Amino acid sequence: MPSLDYHREPHGVYFLIDNKSFYASVECIERGFNPLKAPLVVMSEADNTNGGLVLATSPEAKLLYHLQANVSRQRDLPADPRLVVVPPRMTLYIQRNLQINAIFNRFVADCDLLPYSIDESILDLTHSWHLFGETPRAVAQRIQHTIRHELGLYTTVGIGDNPVQAKLALDLYAKHTQDLIGEIHYDTVQETIWPIKDLTSIWGIGHRTAKHLQRLGIHTMADLAHANPYLLKQELGLIGTQLFAVAWGIDRSQVAKPSLPQSTSLGNSQVLPRDYHNVTEIETVIKEVGEQVASRLRHHHQLAGAVSLSIGFAYAASEMTGESGFSQVMRIDPTDQDRAITAPLITLFKQHWHGQAIRNIAVYTAKLQPKQGQQLSLFTGMEQQLRTDRLAQTVDQIRSRFGFTKLVYLRSLVAGGTAIQRASLVGGHNGGNAYD
Amino acid sequence: MTKDVQLILERLQPFFKQRSQTRYWLQITDNHYGQTYNVFFNYQRKWHRLKSQPLHTLNTYNLADLEAIVTELQTLTKLTIDYVGFGEQVWPNRQQRIQRKPHGYE
After folding, report:
1. A1-192: CATH architecture
2. Max CA separation in chain A (angstroms)
3. Catalytic one among A60, A120, A183, A281?
4. Among A170, A245, A320, A423, which is least packed, fewest CB within 10 Å?
């Protein structure tokens, strides 16, 4: 079997730590249940979830009802009296995540800890593991015990010589072993990564990429490792070469070095609680989302040089027309003002909408630049421009001090408006009781 | 009525619909990890899934305070109260065990 000389590749000790069924486990602990024993699901029953959307499933519920984590609907749940259904509390999960990362901080320096998502973090223990145990595996066990002891939560740990090996060890092995630890190293790549036949279980390979690879005759990770990298690049672009590197367990990224995206964007999207047909209702929501984005721009002291509007049609409308929606971009003069953002959005909407029923609305701003002063326009009076800017700042201040719902546009109160209801959401879901 | 009891009663009201063939009860948990007492409102229709709604978190981790709240809740609601996570702890005033047997999911 061909092998590769890895000695010039970066060698370190990386942990990728994930919380087992995070939201469900937190809810179990809050109720005094063992996270591995109770069949519990966290289900959002907001208006726009079409009956209910399962956000998290405890390991026992997964086992009993063959549920998947984030694609199950209320209709997939059995009417089993043993099953406990609870609403989400996003604020609580964020608090727990912060506590977990504070525990990680006892084992690594700040710069070696990279929170990857709400329930996953990357730890670079290259320089500190030997302070806490005989082997990296012993350190992993110690971290697991600390978190279980202090917060009651179970964690799974992937260990690797670089971040991608740790990630694969976590996804492919740690989640299925007794001690919830998996390891992949340069010298075990051939036994651990190559035999994988289900390509979608590999980080970075979705259904479409897997199909594309299969068309190229690549059915296992071993096939991918022995494919022609130039062909992969030609077929899949840059991601092709990246996947080729993954197949060999190679990752040259440096966790401690922050990566700067070439261009940033900022936006919001929402799924509507029902199909919207009425033009006034739709424009109300577009304006609300536009204003939310403008407010976030002001908060980040950024100006947007382009706005984009994406509209998703309702199921029936997309079946009939064969189109799922449209997405359009417009260049604008750099701004962070409500009206300057919403006006082009409404123009885009009027130009491209032909009466279809709508279910999704997304507004994004791009070509961001830092706000270093106000660019005055020649076409409006200077006084008025300054007044508009001051007004927006005052509204933002009132909202940040007293809450968003204390000052809303009248249109948010008419049928179709969603801003007030959305104001209490955290990460798109119920934040939990306002004060406990 | 204490502020905590008032908050609990206010929050359980929308879920207490008094439907037939439906069981309603309160669950109080000793979360020794977070050092809090958590109050939930549980309800379950016969042969259906159990729904558990968080009502309140009591941050004063003191059994005597909890006992006072529980006494008030019992007189005001008549709801059954399930205790989870209390182990062999005893009410300071009543001198009775709080939780009779361990919960199946503990």
Report:
1. 2-Layer Sandwich (3.30)
2. 75
3. A120
4. A320
Name the β-bridge partners of A54: A43
Q: How far apart are CA A100 and CA A15, in angstroms?
A: 14
Long-range contacts of residues A61-65, Cβ cutoff 8 Å, at least 24 apart: A61/A24, A62/A21, A64/A39, A65/A39
Q: Per residue in A207-264, pLDDT tens?
A: 899 999 999 999 999 999 999 999 999 999 999 999 999 999 999 887 777 666 666 7
Q: Do B31 and A79 touch (CB under 8 A)?
A: no
* Alpha helix segments (H runs only) across chain B: 3-12, 63-77
This prediction's pTM: 0.83
A383 is catalytic: no
- Tell me the residues of B at the A interface, defined by beta carbons under 8 Å apart: 11, 27, 29-31, 33-34, 38, 40, 44, 47-57, 59, 84-85, 103-106
* Residue A261 CB burial class (10 angstroms; 0-12, 13-18, ≥19): exposed
CATH superfamily of A266-430: DNA polymerase, Y-family, little finger domain (3.30.1490.100)
Structure tokens at B32: 């020794």
Q: Are the Cβ atoms of B52 and A31 closer than 8 angstroms?
A: yes
Contact A86 B51 (CB under 8 A): yes
